[in-house]
Amino acid sequence: MIVVSVVLGLLQLALPAAAIPRRGNEPWSLILCKFRDSDYEPRSAEWFKEWISGGNNPDTIESYFSSVSNAVYTIKGSNVTKWLQLPWTRRQVLRMAYMDPRLQSERERPFAMFDKAKQLCISFAEQNGYYLNKQKITILNMENTAVYGKDTGVLLTPKLIFSSVLTHEMIHSMNIGHSYSDRNIRRLKALLGFSVLLSWGIR
Question: Would you say which domain of life the source belongs to (predicted)?
Fold first, then answer.
């Protein structure tokens, strides 16, 4: 805890504002989303609620961020939807992704399917009356990936529903990348000699 506090202090003193981990309370919304052609639910909605912010449980995502940041950053008030079934099959979503010109740049194309799925799940949840916070996590009931996108937030799939994976992707929302690959973070690596994500206990 002392090491983490020192690291965060150095970040504030030495880096531009864009590289400073976020402060204050920032609730997230978790959207549980199924394709039309699959009823599979890897976990219940109640399980996800407990995972994110289940009371006094020290193993929740809420407890993790409060602990690792010394309560500088919290996610109290985060909410979880029920499992929502899209009116489109996986194949239809994939086709929509390939037809969306915004997702066909060289940089975006590898993530097109996941970005389109997140867009549709978020929109469908809002159409069903859910209030969604600015920061979002979409749990998809198929595929095998974990990814963060600035516009649509985090995506997790069944085989990657782990606290370490989720917190890793959530931290990307704070403008923190991988120091070994993100050219905008190289200054930090040279200054402190380690990966920011590793400093938060995220591998």
Answer: Eukaryota
Cα 168 to Cα 96, 162, 164, distances in angstroms = 28, 10, 6
> For residue 178, what pLDDT is reported?
66
Model confidence pLDDT, tens digit, residues 128-145: 999 999 999 999 999 999
- How many C-beta atoms lie closer than 10 Å to residue 97's C-beta? 21
Q: Which of 147, 163, 144, 122 is nearest to 32 (CA)?
A: 122
**pLDDT at 55 > cutoff 90:** no
Answer yes or no: is 173 within a domain: no
Alpha-carbon distance 90 to 116, whole Å? 11
Q: Hey, what are 65's tokens?
A: 């961020």
Residue type at 142?
M
Q: What is the C-alpha to C-alpha distance for residues 160 and 123, in angstroms, rounded to an integer? A: 23
Residue 115 has φ and ψ, to the nearest 5°, of: -65, -40
**Residue 32 falls within a domain, yes or no?**
yes
> pLDDT digits over 58-97, tens only?
899 999 999 998 899 999 999 999 999 999 999 999 999 9
Burial readout 23-33 (b: 16 or more C-beta within 10 A, e: otherwise): eeebbbbbbbb
Structural domain that includes position 146: 28-63+79-163
pLDDT band at 124 (very low <50, low <70, confident <90, very high): very high
Total domains, the chain: 1
